[in-house]
Every structure is written in C-alpha cells, then in structure tokens.
# Entry
Amino acid sequence: MKFNVSSTELLKALMDVSKAIPSKTALPILENFLFVLNGGILEITASDQDLTLKTSIEVDSTEEEGKITTPARTITDLLKALPDQPISIKTVNDRSIECAWSSGKSTLPYISADDYPEIKTVGEDAAKVTIPAGTLIDGIAGTVYATADDEIRPAMNGIFFDIDTTSTTLVASDSHKLICYTTADVNAAEKASFILHKKPASVLRSILGKEDGEVQIAFDQSTVEFQFGSSTMICRLVVGKYPKYREVIPQSNANVLKIDRSVLLNTLKRVSVCANKASNHVKFDLNPGSLEISAQDLGFDIAAYERINCYYSGDSLTIGFKSTFLLAILSNMSCSTLVMKFADARRAALILPSEEEAEEEKICGIIMPIMIS
# Structure
C-alpha cells in the first residue's frame, strides 16, 4: 500500500470513526483502524463488533492499493501533532508502515487486515426508510436523555423508532418520564420498528452534527445500518419488545395549565436550587390564575418559592415532581407556550405544546409525580 493524502482530511476521517474504537477488548486488532485503498478511495473502518463506523476519503495519489490495520491511538496522535500538509503513507515490510511529511517521517506497526473480523451487515430482507439528517438529529437529541439504565428491561435503554405509513415517532422512557418525538418527514410503505441503544444513538447524533441531506436507514431484526454522505454506521439493535407506550399516555386529564415555557423553566431553575439534593423534589400549588412552585431542604434549613401568573382551568391541586426530570423535558422543547394536563396528584401529567404551536413542536411527554409531605 502506498498513497498520498492531506493530513487534515485523514485526521478528520479518523476522528469521525474513532468513536467505535473500544477502550478494552479481547481482540487487540479492534484497537486498530482498518484501511482499505482501492481506486483512489481510502475506506477507513473502526469497530467494537457491536458498533461499526466507516467513512471514505479521496486520496491525492495512489501508487499501490491494498489493505492494512494500524494502531488507532498512535496514528491519531501523530496526525494531531502535524500541521496541515500532504503526507505519504506506505508499507515498508510485512509489519511496518512509514508516514512521511515535509520535514520528517515516522514508522508505525501494522497488522494484516486478514485478521480483522468480518462486519455483519443487514440482510437482503431489510426494511428501508429515508429520514432528513436534521430530523434525525433533533429526534435523537429530544429523546435520548429519557432512556433508562435497566439491566432487567434492556428495551428501555434505547430509543424506539415507531415507523408508520403517515409518520414516525421516536420514543424513550425510564418509567419516570416518557418522551415522544413525532415527525411527518418519515414514513414507510408498511409499519415497522426497531430499538436503537442510546450509546450508538448518541454517537450517530455527534457524527451527523450539522449534516445536510438525507440518511438512508436499513434494518432487520438484529442490525441497523445508517448511510449518510460518505459514512456508514452499523450497529446491533436492542432485542426485545418495547412497551405499548401509547396506552400510558393520558387522554382525559381535566386540569389544564397553560404557561410560557421559558418562564416556567427559569422559575424551576431558581426554586430547585433549594430542593433536597438527593430527591430534587419541587411542589406545584395550582389555583385558577396562578401557579406557586416551592422547594425546601430541611436538613440545611433552606427553602424557596415563587408565584407565577398563568392560565389554569380545573380544581385546586397540589402535586410534586422531581425537578431534574421536569427541567430536562422543558429544556428539550422549543415551543413558546406549553400545556400541562393533570388528573390528580398521583397520576401522570401530560406535557405538550399549545394548540397554536402543535404543528411546529414535535415533542410531547408525560412525567410521573412524586409523593410530597
């Protein structure tokens, strides 16, 4: 193998796929990048066998094609220390490669690519769907924080993609809160679904960044493949059945609070400073025309409350919430005015955008209350 390439372009490509390099592995070769040079295109692969990332770049010139693996950390650290300039990479024997630049060179080890494990992809019967990159980024960002860390129910540790013929909903829940992101940008010929673990979901979001264009998704019962630009992400799906989330969304909560989202968010931030650090409990006292939010920590003799003018229709109600959960939901919504609907102090509250903003705001959710003294 011998080729010339921009050091900056190569480093960017390596950084894009490096998130799949495992920190610990029983297969040392997985600590390497796989380089495959063919027809002036260098394909770079990194994998921990659960998550695989691939990207391709054009090289400036190719003198000898081939494939090798090289230590990920060493070559990345070397390129980070180099200013932007052309570099030449070539194999010098059956165990070393030479990386040369304008004023010097370095010799790095490599392992035969024949020992690199085969990457499993989706089957021929895979379902396929296309989603705008921006929509996928927003959907993951708006739901991933609500996933669980549940060893008993692994399905709760991921984002559920509920794909229908008219719309798609991304769902995440940790049993204390449930968040739905619904978009009409994605639909399929027939209903399908899969569960993407939160780790690859977060990696995908970071790689997409401000990516324009569309993401091609193909998935079967065990594997999903995302293709965008010159990059591909392949990962194992969470195996299991996701709960029937629609059945737990309240439909008849009669007590309705309509309030400016930013006002509620900022008030919660101020009052929750005085909440107990272990429980993070805050209390809502709801009466027609007003909402009073309070918190206290008797152990440190601190307390806070604030009253907000608002629209409230329903019975006077006192209800408690975990402030960190509520702050996370409000922070990930973008609507100006939101609606909270309550049944009573023991049942889940529904959070959704106002009717005027229902078409623009794609996130809604429910949050379980906590008992208050």
Observations:
- The chain has a mean pLDDT of 94.
- The two ends are 71 Å apart (CA to CA).
